[in-house]
Design goal:
The complex is a heterotrimer of chains A (314), B (293) and C (370).
Chain A: H1 9-25, H2 29-54, H3 62-78, H4 84-107, H5 113-131, H6 133-136, E1 142-143, H7 157-179, H8 182-192, H9 194-199, H10 204-230, E2 232-233, H11 240-253, H12 258-275, H13 282-296, H14 301-313
Antiparallel strand pairs in A: 1-2
Helix pairs in contact in A: 1-7, 2-7, 2-10, 2-11, 2-12, 3-4, 3-5, 3-10, 4-5, 4-10, 11-12
Chain B: H1 2-35, H2 42-58, H3 63-86, H4 94-116, E1 132-134, E2 137-139, H5 141-163, H6 165-175, H7 177-182, H8 187-213, H9 220-234, H10 239-260, H11 267-279
Helix pairs in contact in B: 1-5, 1-6, 1-8, 1-9, 1-10, 2-3, 2-4, 2-8, 2-9, 3-8, 5-6, 5-8, 6-8, 9-10, 9-11, 10-11
Chain C: E1 2-3, E2 12-22, H1 29-48, E3 55-63, H2 68-81, E4 86-89, H3 93-106, E5 110-112, E6 127-129, H4 134-147, E7 152-157, H5 161-173, E8 180-186, H6 195-202, E9 209-213, H7 217-228, E10 235-237, H8 244-249, E11 258-262, H9 277-291, H10 297-316, H11 321-329, E12 334-335, E13 340-341, E14 356-362, E15 365-368
The chains are: A mainly alpha (314), B mainly alpha (293), C alpha/beta (370).
Chain lengths: 314, 293, 370
């Protein structure tokens, strides 16, 4: 199978094309900023989708890892004078270690223990960030220094848009490679039936841990980028609510669909802006959309639409 | 002498809030038993119970009528939720069902904001606010209502599960749904019953605690999460375990605030859940899970 | 969302755009809800009586849900997409601090409705504020305590930004007033039972008074717990509790609580020659008639913010951002409902000392202490 024929390559090219044209279509800086936020959320979602969609595990605390990356960058750069790139890497490494520590014992168990573990972890992280005022600025948050790389600094919305778009493309490409590799095939086997996979020689626990760690690293890096882009972070980045938003994006867009994750992120990031006119009813409508999608479009938006398209073409 | 009075104060405080966590945890356990779904809208049943009572009392209804009305309303909402949102997705994956319950919790909260606004509301205490002095500790009469009420409900449930056909059908279904269906148990009815019971439990908890802690549209979020921790501690699916779990979580929280550090009180429930996962995954009373190929 | 009314008389075509982001929902809805209601009412009144400089005012408002992330997004939206002339908003310190960098960079006049002193200290060119700072509140509380011969204080605070700032100021100012903080307890967000913390304070050797730093539902819960534990030491709270909701939520347990508040709260009890009396009474009558709920000082901050803004635009004769900013800074002896404002290049708050009064809860009502 040629590189172009590999599943997902066409999607990757399409995504790149969309990202290239978008700035020309958006009339002002604010909308460009929304697009950048979509990109940041999409990076987290692509990673989270690997965990939920392909490894069949649910994380209810992913926002915690996102926040750890954000705070690592903020504190290491602001308090200790580290170069931003080093802080970003340090954050990702720290988060990966934490992920391994949690996941190893849990993954050996069957059932939704990872959901509970990540729930607990996420809430504890958000409480610690809230309480350690000296270090983190407490519930009101803290400002973040600009991102500099050997003296160069992104100047304005446009620069950040290109940075985030580039990172997103890299994330998608990495995820695609993972899926189409032996690890990915093993994952899909695990998702089908853990016992059967184990019988066939797949080290179930090890693969699940790996995917979990990868997904948390995606979240951490996205968090660091968000911190520098936004200029200000608060502990609410680690909140249970935020974790739920992330899971919703993945599920809405489509489980086991990398582009679905991007679409889900796009829809749910822009929806509050679109629903702003609803004011009082915003939360209600949001909840209704969530329920409706799960009942009527169970596999998520992209796989359902893809299925419809396939049937229509026949 | 001062030390033990303080200890008693903390203990009563812990048992009171622990009873609430236990009721909420019970709700989680019952629905999990009936369907293996973790109902993240459980906390919202608590909220709806309390808020509806506030409204009914505001209309001038006497307390008993308001309480009964609120419980009925919450149970109705629970059953509607089961019928409209859970049943159509019956054959969906567990993840999808969990997302649906999360969506429901957001929907309920959004609706509550529209109906009751964003302020907090208070309920009058059932029998006044004058504290009762026991061994140097000041106990609110409402605390006794909470503890007594929770105890009565739990005892009632025990009787229900062990001595009625419907209750025994629920237990059977939780052990083995296929076998239950084979012997003629209507598992769909069991599911509805499960949701109805959990809604009732949530509403009762909300009504009992509202005079002490005030109620507002978002009160269910933390209560739901901590009730979930209680259920996990007890062994997800073990109703009495959830009650015990709730008490343990409640007392640990208050003791931590009283003797260690008041700042990390909220973290206690979640540290407990992490400890359970690492050291005792099936909870205090659960049995090891078996998975079918 | 845009709110603008077209009165009977045709106004000039180009409306003045005032933007606001408020915490109408979430933990600070206590503040954001009356703030929004006040702003809507204020602008309605102006539009109905001919507009400002002959132009209609459009109020563009967003609910940041007490989340800083949303505050940042909405301020960006107000600046780049809605292209507002001026912003009055930011219910909480957290959300205000989060957007200051943006505001300074964009050069838009901004009047904040949040409490902490750090917002205008150090002074920032485009940023102003209307509420009293927590530092001033703490100073006023300590002065009252000293007058009553109290010097050993048990402190309880929540985990919100205002709470933490207030606690910090209390600890910093204590020695200046001859006060010692003998107990320092903290409770978590959304806590429903503060008896453990209060039990510890109650049991502290020699404690003479309780000071609670916080706002929202916890203020009432603390009062209820205080009563439950049979505590008798004088009970102080801050202007974060300056609302009837605090008293009602406490179901009678708020009796005797003292706190510093803008005179608006007790406007009926002010002597007739008090500068705030006329404006405050008018605002109270209009708000309560329209919204059927009691006023709070938070709504008053919003009123003052808009007052300062519209007066500045009037004096500038245009909506040119730099000119309006200069005029805001030149605000002199402007009588608002929460105080009299005199700003300067070094003081972007400008409230007079007499605008803050000590009040006490008596029979579930606010009583002005002379």
């Amino acid at each position: 199978m040629t590189a172009l024929g590999r599943p997902g390559t066409r999607g990757l090219v399409a995504l790149a094309a969309i990202m290239a044209i978008l700035p020309a279509l958006l009339p002002n800086d604010f909308l460009l900023g929304v697009a950048t936020l979509v990109g940041i959320n999409a990076i987290v979602c692509v990673g989270l989708n690997l965990l939920i969609g392909y490894a069949g595990q649910i994380s209810l605390g992913h926002a915690g890892f996102f926040a750890l990356g954000a705070y690592a960058s903020t504190i290491l750069v602001g308090e200790f004078g580290w170069p931003p790139l080093a802080a970003l890497v340090a954050g990702a490494v720290g988060v990966a270690l934490l992920a391994v520590m949690i996941a190893r014992p849990i993954m050996k168990l069957k059932g939704h223990y990872l959901a509970m573990g990540t729930l607990g972890m996420g809430v504890v992280i958000s409480i610690v960030l809230d309480q350690e005022v000296e270090l983190t600025g407490g519930p009101d948050g803290m400002p973040v220094d600009a991102f500099t790389l050997f003296g160069w600094e992104p100047a304005g919305e446009m620069a950040w848009y290109w940075i985030v778009s580039g990172l997103l493309l890299v994330s998608v490409w990495l995820a695609l490679n993972l899926i189409n590799s032996p690890i990915g095939r093993a994952l899909r086997a695990v998702h089908g039936s853990e016992v059967a996979a184990a019988v066939a020689g797949v080290d179930v626990a090890r693969y699940k841990v790996r995917v979990f760690v990868v997904s948390t690293v995606f979240a951490s890096i996205a968090g660091s980028v968000f911190a520098h882009y936004s200029g200000f972070i608060t502990p609410s980045e680690a909140s249970f609510l935020h974790s739920i938003e992330l899971v919703t994006m993945v599920v809405l867009g489509g489980l086991a669909s990398i582009f679905g994750a991007v679409v889900g992120a796009a829809i749910l990031t822009t929806l509050p802006q679109l629903l702003a006119f609803l004011h009082d009813f915003e939360m209600l409508v949001f909840g209704a959309i969530l329920i409706g999608t799960m009942i009527f479009m169970r596999k998520g938006l992209v796989p359902t639409l893809a299925g419809l398209a396939r049937r229509w073409r026949r | 002498m001062a030390v033990s009075a303080d200890f008693l104060q903390f203990l009563f405080s812990g048992i009171t809030v622990g009873a609430i966590y236990g009721l909420v945890g019970l709700g989680f356990a019952i629905i999990y038993n009936a369907s293996h779904v973790i109902n993240f809208a459980q906390g919202e049943f608590v909220m709806i119970g309390g808020m509806t009572t506030v409204s009914l009392i505001g209309l001038g209804l006497p307390l008993l009528v308001a309480v009964a009305g609120a419980i009925l309303a919450t149970v109705g909402i629970g059953l509607l939720f089961e019928k409209l949102a859970i049943e159509p997705a019956r054959d969906a994956s567990i993840v999808a069902l969990i997302i649906i319950t999360i969506g429901a919790s957001i929907l309920f909260r959004g609706a509550a904001q529209v109906i009751w606004g964003r302020n907090f509301h208070s309920l009058p205490s059932f029998s006044g606010d004058d504290p009762i002095l026991i061994g140097g500790a000041a106990i609110l009469p409402q605390s006794l209502w909470v503890i007594g009420g929770a105890g009565a409900i739990v005892a009632g449930l025990q009787w229900f599960f062990n001595h009625t056909l419907a209750g025994k059908a629920m237990i059977a279904t939780s052990h083995n749904p296929l076998a239950a269906r084979l012997v003629g148990i209507n598992t769909r009815f069991v599911l509805m019953l499960g949701f109805g019971l959990s809604a009732m439990l949530g509403a009762a908890a909300g009504i009992l605690i509202a005079p002490i802690s005030l109620t507002y549209a978002g009160v269910g979020v933390m209560l739901g999460l901590k009730g979930f921790c209680a259920a996990v501690l007890g062994g997800l699916g073990k109703p009495m375990g959830a009650v015990a779990g709730g008490l343990i979580v409640g007392i640990s929280e208050v003791m931590t605030a009283g003797y260690v550090s008041s700042a990390y009180k909220d973290a206690v429930a979640f540290i407990i859940i992490l400890a359970v996962l690492f050291f005792l995954p099936s909870g205090l009373f659960g049995d090891r899970g078996t998975e079918r190929v | 969302m845009v709110l603008g009314l077209v009165p009977g008389r045709a106004l000039a075509a180009d409306p003045i755009r005032i933007g606001t982001f408020l915490s109408v929902s979430g933990g600070a809805s206590f503040l954001g809800d009356p703030e929004l209601k006040t702003m809507v009412m204020f602008i309605d009144r102006i539009n109905k009586s001919g507009g400002l400089l002959g132009r209609r005012i459009d109020l563009i408002h967003y609910d940041d849900e007490t989340r800083a992330k949303n505050a940042i997004t909405y301020v960006k939206r107000l600046i780049s997409q809605d292209k507002v002339d001026l912003i009055v908003g930011g219910s909480t310190t957290g959300n205000t601090m989060a957007v200051i960098k943006l505001i300074q960079k964009a050069g838009v006049p901004f009047i904040s409705l949040a409490g902490a002193g750090v917002i205008v200290d150090p002074v920032k060119k485009w940023v102003f504020k209307t509420p009293h700072t927590d530092k001033v509140a703490v100073a006023k509380i300590f002065t009252d305590m000293k007058a009553r011969g109290l010097s050993k204080v048990g402190l309880l605070s929540g985990s919100g930004g205002f709470d933490k700032s207030c606690r910090k100021n209390a600890r910093a100012l204590a020695s200046e007033f001859g006060i010692t903080i003998v107990a320092d307890e903290v409770h978590g967000k959304g806590d429903t039972d503060m008896t453990p913390q209060l039990t510890r304070i109650k049991g502290t050797q020699g404690v003479q008074a309780l000071l609670y730093c916080g706002f929202g539902a916890p203020t009432s819960i603390v009062a209820k717990n205080y009563k439950q534990l049979g505590m008798t030491i004088p009970h102080y709270q801050t202007h974060g509790s300056a609302s009837m909701k605090f008293i009602l939520g406490a179901s009678g347990a708020a009796e005797g609580v003292r706190l510093p508040a803008a005179a608006l709260l007790v406007v009926d009890q002010l002597p007739d020659d008090h500068p705030q009396k006329a404006v405050g009474t008018a605002y109270k009558a209009a708000y309560e008639a329209r919204y059927k709920e009691p006023i709070s000082t938070f709504g008053g901050h919003a009123y003052d913010g808009l007052l300062i803004a519209t007066e500045a635009i009037k004096r500038a004769g245009s909506t040119d951002k730099a000119k309006v900013r200069d005029e805001i800074e030149k605000t002199n002896h402007l009588v608002g409902v929460d105080g009299i404002f005199t700003m300067s290049p070094s003081d972007h708050l400008g409230l007079n000392a007499g605008s803050f009064v000590m009040v006490e809860v008596r029979n579930d009502k606010w009583k002005l202490l002379q």
